[in-house]
Design goal:
- By secondary structure, the chain is mainly α.
- The chain has a single domain, classed as MFS general substrate transporter like domains (Growth Hormone, Chain: A, Up-down Bundle).
- 72% of the residues lie in helices and 2% in strands.
- The protein is built from 17 helices and 4 strands.
- It has a two-stranded antiparallel sheet. It has a two-stranded antiparallel ribbon with strand order 3-4.
- The longest helix has 30 residues.
- 54% of the residues are buried.
Protein backbone atom coordinates (compact mmCIF):
# COMPACT_ATOMS: atom_id res chain seq x y z
CA UNK A 1 0.00 0.00 0.00
CA UNK A 2 1.38 3.39 -0.97
CA UNK A 3 2.31 5.65 1.96
CA UNK A 4 0.80 9.12 2.07
CA UNK A 5 1.61 12.33 3.85
CA UNK A 6 -0.78 13.03 6.70
CA UNK A 7 -1.99 16.59 7.35
CA UNK A 8 0.26 18.42 9.78
CA UNK A 9 -2.32 18.40 12.57
CA UNK A 10 -2.52 14.59 12.45
CA UNK A 11 1.21 13.81 12.60
CA UNK A 12 2.93 12.05 15.46
CA UNK A 13 6.40 12.29 16.92
CA UNK A 14 7.78 9.73 19.40
CA UNK A 15 4.33 8.19 19.77
CA UNK A 16 2.43 11.42 20.50
CA UNK A 17 0.74 14.11 18.37
CA UNK A 18 3.20 16.78 17.23
CA UNK A 19 0.78 19.32 18.70
CA UNK A 20 1.77 18.07 22.16
CA UNK A 21 5.30 19.37 21.65
CA UNK A 22 4.03 22.73 20.40
CA UNK A 23 2.04 23.07 23.62
CA UNK A 24 5.03 21.71 25.58
CA UNK A 25 7.36 24.51 24.41
CA UNK A 26 4.66 27.18 24.66
CA UNK A 27 3.98 26.23 28.27
CA UNK A 28 7.70 25.83 29.02
CA UNK A 29 8.38 29.46 28.10
CA UNK A 30 5.20 30.71 29.75
CA UNK A 31 6.24 29.00 33.00
CA UNK A 32 9.77 30.37 32.56
CA UNK A 33 8.28 33.85 32.59
CA UNK A 34 5.93 33.11 35.51
CA UNK A 35 8.45 31.33 37.76
CA UNK A 36 11.13 33.87 36.93
CA UNK A 37 8.81 36.60 38.19
CA UNK A 38 7.64 34.43 41.13
CA UNK A 39 11.20 33.78 42.34
CA UNK A 40 11.76 37.52 42.67
CA UNK A 41 8.32 38.64 43.85
CA UNK A 42 8.53 38.53 47.65
CA UNK A 43 12.29 39.17 47.70
CA UNK A 44 11.81 42.34 45.68
CA UNK A 45 8.97 43.53 47.92
CA UNK A 46 11.04 43.20 51.14
CA UNK A 47 14.29 44.60 49.67
CA UNK A 48 15.32 47.85 51.36
CA UNK A 49 14.51 51.06 49.51
CA UNK A 50 17.96 52.45 50.37
CA UNK A 51 19.99 49.54 48.95
CA UNK A 52 21.81 49.72 45.62
CA UNK A 53 19.25 47.24 44.24
CA UNK A 54 16.20 48.83 45.85
CA UNK A 55 12.84 47.19 46.38
CA UNK A 56 9.70 48.39 48.12
CA UNK A 57 11.00 47.85 51.67
CA UNK A 58 7.89 46.00 52.86
CA UNK A 59 7.68 43.75 55.92
CA UNK A 60 7.51 39.97 55.51
CA UNK A 61 3.83 39.98 56.49
CA UNK A 62 2.95 42.64 53.91
CA UNK A 63 4.87 40.83 51.17
CA UNK A 64 3.23 37.47 51.98
CA UNK A 65 -0.21 39.10 51.99
CA UNK A 66 0.26 40.54 48.49
CA UNK A 67 1.84 37.29 47.31
CA UNK A 68 -1.28 35.41 48.46
CA UNK A 69 -3.70 37.79 46.77
CA UNK A 70 -1.68 37.99 43.55
CA UNK A 71 -1.13 34.27 43.08
CA UNK A 72 -4.78 33.61 43.95
CA UNK A 73 -6.02 36.05 41.32
CA UNK A 74 -3.59 34.63 38.74
CA UNK A 75 -5.36 31.27 38.95
CA UNK A 76 -8.92 32.38 39.83
CA UNK A 77 -8.92 34.37 36.59
CA UNK A 78 -8.97 30.97 34.88
CA UNK A 79 -12.75 30.89 35.46
CA UNK A 80 -13.49 33.83 33.10
CA UNK A 81 -10.69 32.50 30.89
CA UNK A 82 -12.50 29.18 30.58
CA UNK A 83 -15.82 30.95 29.95
CA UNK A 84 -14.31 33.04 27.15
CA UNK A 85 -12.98 29.87 25.54
CA UNK A 86 -16.26 27.94 25.85
CA UNK A 87 -18.57 30.76 24.76
CA UNK A 88 -16.65 33.24 22.62
CA UNK A 89 -13.27 32.31 21.16
CA UNK A 90 -12.51 28.62 21.65
CA UNK A 91 -9.52 27.32 23.59
CA UNK A 92 -6.95 27.86 20.85
CA UNK A 93 -7.67 31.56 20.27
CA UNK A 94 -8.02 32.22 24.00
CA UNK A 95 -4.52 30.79 24.57
CA UNK A 96 -3.28 33.17 21.85
CA UNK A 97 -4.96 36.10 23.61
CA UNK A 98 -3.49 35.01 26.95
CA UNK A 99 0.00 34.85 25.49
CA UNK A 100 -0.33 38.39 24.12
CA UNK A 101 -1.53 39.72 27.50
CA UNK A 102 1.38 37.98 29.24
CA UNK A 103 3.90 39.51 26.84
CA UNK A 104 2.49 42.93 27.75
CA UNK A 105 2.38 42.18 31.47
CA UNK A 106 5.91 40.89 31.87
CA UNK A 107 7.27 43.74 29.72
CA UNK A 108 5.51 46.35 31.86
CA UNK A 109 6.75 44.62 35.04
CA UNK A 110 10.30 45.18 33.85
CA UNK A 111 9.83 48.97 34.05
CA UNK A 112 11.03 50.57 37.27
CA UNK A 113 8.09 52.22 39.00
CA UNK A 114 5.44 51.29 41.53
CA UNK A 115 2.61 51.97 39.06
CA UNK A 116 4.08 49.74 36.36
CA UNK A 117 4.66 46.97 38.92
CA UNK A 118 0.95 46.81 39.73
CA UNK A 119 -0.06 47.29 36.08
CA UNK A 120 2.24 44.46 35.01
CA UNK A 121 0.73 42.18 37.66
CA UNK A 122 -2.75 43.06 36.38
CA UNK A 123 -1.92 42.03 32.80
CA UNK A 124 -0.24 38.83 34.01
CA UNK A 125 -3.38 37.92 35.98
CA UNK A 126 -5.49 38.35 32.84
CA UNK A 127 -2.99 36.51 30.64
CA UNK A 128 -2.59 33.46 32.87
CA UNK A 129 -6.37 33.28 33.21
CA UNK A 130 -6.79 33.00 29.46
CA UNK A 131 -3.84 30.70 28.80
CA UNK A 132 -3.56 28.31 31.72
CA UNK A 133 -6.88 26.39 31.74
CA UNK A 134 -7.18 26.24 27.98
CA UNK A 135 -3.72 25.03 27.08
CA UNK A 136 -4.19 22.18 29.58
CA UNK A 137 -7.56 21.29 28.03
CA UNK A 138 -5.97 21.31 24.58
CA UNK A 139 -3.46 18.69 25.70
CA UNK A 140 -6.33 16.40 26.67
CA UNK A 141 -8.07 17.16 23.37
CA UNK A 142 -5.16 15.73 21.40
CA UNK A 143 -6.13 12.20 22.51
CA UNK A 144 -9.20 10.06 21.89
CA UNK A 145 -11.29 8.68 24.74
CA UNK A 146 -9.74 5.76 26.64
CA UNK A 147 -6.32 6.39 25.06
CA UNK A 148 -3.80 5.36 27.73
CA UNK A 149 -1.24 7.76 26.22
CA UNK A 150 -3.18 10.67 27.73
CA UNK A 151 -1.58 10.39 31.21
CA UNK A 152 1.88 10.08 29.65
CA UNK A 153 1.10 13.07 27.44
CA UNK A 154 0.37 15.12 30.54
CA UNK A 155 3.62 13.93 32.12
CA UNK A 156 5.50 15.13 29.02
CA UNK A 157 3.60 18.43 29.13
CA UNK A 158 4.40 18.69 32.83
CA UNK A 159 8.09 18.29 32.04
CA UNK A 160 7.85 21.41 29.88
CA UNK A 161 6.40 23.32 32.83
CA UNK A 162 9.27 22.28 35.03
CA UNK A 163 12.10 22.81 32.59
CA UNK A 164 10.90 26.41 32.47
CA UNK A 165 10.46 26.39 36.24
CA UNK A 166 14.03 25.11 36.73
CA UNK A 167 15.79 27.57 34.43
CA UNK A 168 13.85 30.70 35.38
CA UNK A 169 14.88 31.12 39.06
CA UNK A 170 18.52 30.46 38.17
CA UNK A 171 18.65 32.96 35.31
CA UNK A 172 16.06 35.56 36.32
CA UNK A 173 16.77 35.07 40.03
CA UNK A 174 20.51 35.59 39.75
CA UNK A 175 20.17 38.68 37.55
CA UNK A 176 17.36 40.11 39.67
CA UNK A 177 19.05 39.63 43.06
CA UNK A 178 22.60 40.50 42.06
CA UNK A 179 22.23 43.10 39.30
CA UNK A 180 18.78 44.66 39.14
CA UNK A 181 15.33 43.36 40.05
CA UNK A 182 13.78 44.77 36.89
CA UNK A 183 16.40 43.20 34.64
CA UNK A 184 15.29 39.87 36.12
CA UNK A 185 11.66 40.71 35.37
CA UNK A 186 12.76 41.71 31.86
CA UNK A 187 14.32 38.30 31.23
CA UNK A 188 10.98 36.75 32.20
CA UNK A 189 9.34 38.91 29.53
CA UNK A 190 11.79 37.66 26.88
CA UNK A 191 10.87 34.10 27.79
CA UNK A 192 7.18 34.84 27.23
CA UNK A 193 7.87 36.29 23.80
CA UNK A 194 9.63 33.03 22.87
CA UNK A 195 6.60 31.06 24.06
CA UNK A 196 4.20 33.16 22.01
CA UNK A 197 6.38 32.77 18.92
CA UNK A 198 6.37 28.97 19.29
CA UNK A 199 2.59 28.92 19.63
CA UNK A 200 2.05 31.08 16.55
CA UNK A 201 4.44 28.91 14.53
CA UNK A 202 2.79 25.67 15.66
CA UNK A 203 -0.79 26.50 14.68
CA UNK A 204 -0.66 24.09 11.72
CA UNK A 205 -0.26 21.21 14.19
CA UNK A 206 -3.28 22.30 16.24
CA UNK A 207 -5.97 22.68 13.58
CA UNK A 208 -8.34 20.09 15.02
CA UNK A 209 -8.01 20.90 18.71
CA UNK A 210 -9.22 23.84 20.79
CA UNK A 211 -11.70 25.23 18.25
CA UNK A 212 -14.90 26.99 19.30
CA UNK A 213 -17.95 24.70 19.25
CA UNK A 214 -20.81 26.85 17.96
CA UNK A 215 -24.53 26.25 18.24
CA UNK A 216 -24.84 26.27 14.45
CA UNK A 217 -22.56 23.22 14.03
CA UNK A 218 -23.94 19.68 14.27
CA UNK A 219 -21.61 18.95 17.19
CA UNK A 220 -22.57 22.20 18.87
CA UNK A 221 -26.31 21.53 18.62
CA UNK A 222 -25.92 18.08 20.14
CA UNK A 223 -23.55 19.28 22.88
CA UNK A 224 -25.01 22.63 23.95
CA UNK A 225 -28.70 21.74 23.82
CA UNK A 226 -28.62 18.52 25.87
CA UNK A 227 -28.69 18.42 29.65
CA UNK A 228 -26.10 16.68 31.77
CA UNK A 229 -26.74 13.01 32.38
CA UNK A 230 -26.85 11.58 35.90
CA UNK A 231 -23.41 10.04 35.31
CA UNK A 232 -21.98 13.39 34.25
CA UNK A 233 -23.49 15.03 37.32
CA UNK A 234 -21.87 12.42 39.57
CA UNK A 235 -18.53 12.97 37.87
CA UNK A 236 -18.82 16.71 38.43
CA UNK A 237 -19.44 15.97 42.13
CA UNK A 238 -16.27 13.92 42.47
CA UNK A 239 -14.35 16.62 40.59
CA UNK A 240 -15.55 19.23 43.08
CA UNK A 241 -14.41 16.98 45.93
CA UNK A 242 -11.02 16.57 44.25
CA UNK A 243 -10.78 20.37 44.04
CA UNK A 244 -10.80 20.48 47.86
CA UNK A 245 -7.71 18.28 47.80
CA UNK A 246 -6.15 20.60 45.25
CA UNK A 247 -6.79 23.65 47.48
CA UNK A 248 -5.15 21.90 50.43
CA UNK A 249 -2.23 20.67 48.36
CA UNK A 250 -1.30 24.08 47.00
CA UNK A 251 -1.98 25.84 50.30
CA UNK A 252 0.97 23.89 51.68
CA UNK A 253 3.07 23.54 48.54
CA UNK A 254 3.01 27.24 47.69
CA UNK A 255 4.88 28.11 50.86
CA UNK A 256 7.78 27.66 48.43
CA UNK A 257 7.33 31.03 46.76
CA UNK A 258 6.40 32.86 49.95
CA UNK A 259 7.40 31.75 53.45
CA UNK A 260 10.10 29.28 52.36
CA UNK A 261 11.55 31.79 49.90
CA UNK A 262 11.89 34.38 52.67
CA UNK A 263 13.19 31.69 55.05
CA UNK A 264 15.92 30.83 52.55
CA UNK A 265 16.93 34.47 52.27
CA UNK A 266 16.77 35.45 55.95
CA UNK A 267 17.40 32.33 58.07
CA UNK A 268 19.35 29.84 55.95
CA UNK A 269 23.14 29.63 55.82
CA UNK A 270 23.68 29.88 52.06
CA UNK A 271 27.46 29.96 52.13
CA UNK A 272 28.87 27.43 49.65
CA UNK A 273 32.26 26.08 50.82
CA UNK A 274 33.35 29.58 51.71
CA UNK A 275 33.50 30.45 48.00
CA UNK A 276 30.26 32.36 47.44
CA UNK A 277 26.75 32.86 48.78
CA UNK A 278 23.96 31.13 46.88
CA UNK A 279 21.14 33.60 46.01
CA UNK A 280 17.93 32.69 47.84
CA UNK A 281 15.92 32.66 44.60
CA UNK A 282 18.05 29.77 43.27
CA UNK A 283 16.30 27.43 45.72
CA UNK A 284 13.12 27.98 43.71
CA UNK A 285 14.75 25.80 41.02
CA UNK A 286 15.22 22.79 43.30
CA UNK A 287 11.62 21.61 42.93
CA UNK A 288 11.76 21.73 39.15
CA UNK A 289 15.18 20.06 39.09
CA UNK A 290 13.80 17.13 41.07
CA UNK A 291 10.75 16.95 38.82
CA UNK A 292 12.87 16.73 35.67
CA UNK A 293 15.16 14.09 37.20
CA UNK A 294 12.51 12.05 39.08
CA UNK A 295 9.43 12.22 36.86
CA UNK A 296 10.33 9.11 34.87
CA UNK A 297 11.03 7.09 38.02
CA UNK A 298 7.77 8.13 39.69
CA UNK A 299 5.80 7.46 36.51
CA UNK A 300 7.46 4.04 36.15
CA UNK A 301 6.63 3.22 39.77
CA UNK A 302 2.93 3.91 39.27
CA UNK A 303 2.89 1.93 36.02
CA UNK A 304 4.46 -1.06 37.75
CA UNK A 305 2.11 -0.58 40.71
CA UNK A 306 -0.93 -0.65 38.39
CA UNK A 307 0.29 -3.73 36.52
CA UNK A 308 0.42 -5.56 39.85
CA UNK A 309 -3.30 -4.87 40.18
CA UNK A 310 -2.92 -2.47 43.10
CA UNK A 311 -4.94 0.68 43.68
CA UNK A 312 -3.83 3.33 41.18
CA UNK A 313 -6.80 5.63 40.66
CA UNK A 314 -6.10 9.33 40.23
CA UNK A 315 -7.84 10.24 43.48
CA UNK A 316 -5.63 7.72 45.33
CA UNK A 317 -2.49 9.20 43.78
CA UNK A 318 -3.62 12.68 44.77
CA UNK A 319 -4.11 11.60 48.40
CA UNK A 320 -0.73 9.85 48.49
CA UNK A 321 0.87 12.95 46.98
CA UNK A 322 -0.73 15.12 49.67
CA UNK A 323 0.73 12.91 52.42
CA UNK A 324 4.24 12.78 50.95
CA UNK A 325 4.30 16.54 50.38
CA UNK A 326 3.08 17.16 53.94
CA UNK A 327 5.83 14.99 55.39
CA UNK A 328 8.37 17.24 53.69
CA UNK A 329 7.45 19.99 56.13
CA UNK A 330 8.95 17.83 58.88
CA UNK A 331 12.34 18.86 57.51
CA UNK A 332 11.35 22.52 57.74
CA UNK A 333 10.40 21.89 61.37
CA UNK A 334 13.91 20.56 61.92
CA UNK A 335 15.33 23.62 60.15
CA UNK A 336 13.36 25.90 62.48
CA UNK A 337 14.70 24.11 65.54
CA UNK A 338 18.25 24.40 64.23
CA UNK A 339 17.75 28.11 63.60
CA UNK A 340 16.53 28.61 67.16
CA UNK A 341 19.66 26.88 68.46
CA UNK A 342 22.33 28.23 66.09
CA UNK A 343 20.97 31.43 64.56
CA UNK A 344 20.85 29.85 61.09
CA UNK A 345 19.81 26.57 59.50
CA UNK A 346 21.54 24.35 56.93
CA UNK A 347 20.63 24.38 53.25
CA UNK A 348 20.05 20.63 53.19
CA UNK A 349 16.81 21.00 55.16
CA UNK A 350 15.33 23.10 52.37
CA UNK A 351 16.57 20.65 49.74
CA UNK A 352 15.11 17.65 51.58
CA UNK A 353 11.79 19.46 52.00
CA UNK A 354 11.69 20.26 48.28
CA UNK A 355 12.53 16.63 47.47
CA UNK A 356 9.45 15.38 49.35
CA UNK A 357 7.34 18.21 47.94
CA UNK A 358 8.40 17.19 44.45
CA UNK A 359 7.61 13.51 44.89
CA UNK A 360 4.22 14.50 46.28
CA UNK A 361 3.63 16.85 43.36
CA UNK A 362 4.57 14.16 40.82
CA UNK A 363 2.03 11.83 42.40
CA UNK A 364 -0.78 14.39 42.54
CA UNK A 365 -0.52 17.20 40.04
CA UNK A 366 -0.07 15.67 36.53
CA UNK A 367 -2.77 13.04 37.14
CA UNK A 368 -5.18 15.65 38.47
CA UNK A 369 -4.97 17.50 35.14
CA UNK A 370 -5.56 14.29 33.22
CA UNK A 371 -8.36 13.30 35.63
CA UNK A 372 -10.28 16.46 34.82
CA UNK A 373 -10.12 15.85 31.06
CA UNK A 374 -11.50 12.33 31.70
CA UNK A 375 -14.40 13.34 33.97
CA UNK A 376 -15.40 16.84 32.85
CA UNK A 377 -18.47 16.96 30.56
CA UNK A 378 -17.35 18.24 27.16
CA UNK A 379 -19.98 20.97 27.34
CA UNK A 380 -18.17 22.57 30.29
CA UNK A 381 -14.61 21.38 29.67
CA UNK A 382 -12.88 24.76 29.77
CA UNK A 383 -14.96 26.14 32.64
CA UNK A 384 -14.21 23.09 34.79
CA UNK A 385 -10.52 23.35 33.94
CA UNK A 386 -10.87 26.99 34.96
CA UNK A 387 -12.35 25.84 38.28
CA UNK A 388 -9.34 23.55 38.74
CA UNK A 389 -6.97 26.48 38.37
CA UNK A 390 -9.25 28.60 40.57
CA UNK A 391 -8.90 25.92 43.25
CA UNK A 392 -5.15 26.22 42.77
CA UNK A 393 -5.55 29.98 43.21
CA UNK A 394 -7.52 29.59 46.42
CA UNK A 395 -4.77 27.29 47.63
CA UNK A 396 -2.26 30.05 46.88
CA UNK A 397 -4.35 32.55 48.88
CA UNK A 398 -4.52 30.15 51.83
CA UNK A 399 -0.75 29.71 51.47
CA UNK A 400 -0.34 33.46 51.89
CA UNK A 401 -2.58 33.46 54.98
CA UNK A 402 -0.60 30.58 56.48
CA UNK A 403 2.62 32.46 55.76
CA UNK A 404 1.25 35.56 57.46
CA UNK A 405 0.18 33.48 60.46
CA UNK A 406 3.74 32.22 60.86
CA UNK A 407 4.84 35.75 61.72
CA UNK A 408 2.83 35.57 64.96
CA UNK A 409 2.44 31.83 65.65
CA UNK A 410 5.99 30.87 64.75
CA UNK A 411 7.46 28.99 61.82
CA UNK A 412 8.08 25.75 63.74
CA UNK A 413 4.41 25.59 64.71
CA UNK A 414 3.27 26.25 61.14
CA UNK A 415 5.60 23.73 59.51
CA UNK A 416 4.78 21.04 62.07
CA UNK A 417 1.06 21.71 61.86
CA UNK A 418 1.06 21.27 58.08
CA UNK A 419 3.04 18.02 58.36
CA UNK A 420 0.53 16.52 60.80
CA UNK A 421 -2.85 17.88 59.68
CA UNK A 422 -2.34 17.47 55.94
CA UNK A 423 -1.12 13.88 56.43
CA UNK A 424 -4.25 13.03 58.40
CA UNK A 425 -6.47 14.49 55.66
CA UNK A 426 -4.68 12.39 53.03
CA UNK A 427 -5.28 9.23 55.04
CA UNK A 428 -8.98 10.09 55.45
CA UNK A 429 -9.37 10.48 51.68
CA UNK A 430 -7.83 7.04 51.13
CA UNK A 431 -10.44 5.55 53.45
CA UNK A 432 -13.17 7.13 51.25
CA UNK A 433 -11.88 5.77 47.93
CA UNK A 434 -14.70 3.35 47.17
CA UNK A 435 -17.59 5.86 47.22
CA UNK A 436 -15.47 8.42 45.33
CA UNK A 437 -14.66 5.89 42.61
CA UNK A 438 -18.34 4.97 42.32
CA UNK A 439 -19.13 8.61 41.54
CA UNK A 440 -16.57 8.50 38.71
CA UNK A 441 -18.57 5.70 37.02
CA UNK A 442 -15.55 3.95 35.55
CA UNK A 443 -14.05 6.99 33.82
CA UNK A 444 -10.58 5.49 34.27
CA UNK A 445 -11.57 1.90 33.49
CA UNK A 446 -10.57 0.18 30.29
CA UNK A 447 -7.79 2.55 29.25
CA UNK A 448 -5.94 0.92 26.39
CA UNK A 449 -3.59 1.46 23.52
CA UNK A 450 -5.34 2.51 20.36
CA UNK A 451 -5.60 -0.04 17.59
CA UNK A 452 -4.30 0.65 14.10
CA UNK A 453 -7.83 1.56 12.97
CA UNK A 454 -8.30 3.97 15.87
CA UNK A 455 -4.99 5.71 15.21
CA UNK A 456 -5.78 6.14 11.52
CA UNK A 457 -5.09 9.76 10.68
CA UNK A 458 -2.91 10.24 13.78
CA UNK A 459 0.46 9.01 12.54
CA UNK A 460 3.39 10.53 10.69
CA UNK A 461 4.15 8.66 7.46
CA UNK A 462 6.73 9.14 4.75
CA UNK A 463 6.45 9.30 0.94
Amino acid sequence: MENTIRPADQRELWGHPVGLYVLFFTEMWERFSYYGMRALFTLFLVAETTSSNAGFGWTNGEALALYGWYTMLVYVSSIPGGWIADRLLGQKKTVMLGGALLCIGHSVLALNSEMTFYLGCFFIILGVGCLKPNISSMVGGLYKAKDERRDLGFYIFYMGINIGGFLAPIICGYVGENINWHYGFGLAAIGMFFGQAVYIWGQKYLKNVGNLITKSSKEGKELLERKLTSIEKDRVKVLLISFLLIILFWAAFEQAGGLMNLYAEQKTNRDFLGLFTIPASIFQSVNSFFIVTLATAVGAFWLKWRKKGKESSSIFKMAVGLIIMALGFGFMSAASLQYESNGSSAMYWLILAYLFHTIGELCASPVSLSYITKLAPLKYASIIMGLYWAATGLGNKVAGLIGQASQSLGEFEIFTGIAIVWSIIGVLVITMLKPLKRLAHGAEDGEKKLTNDETEGFELTEH
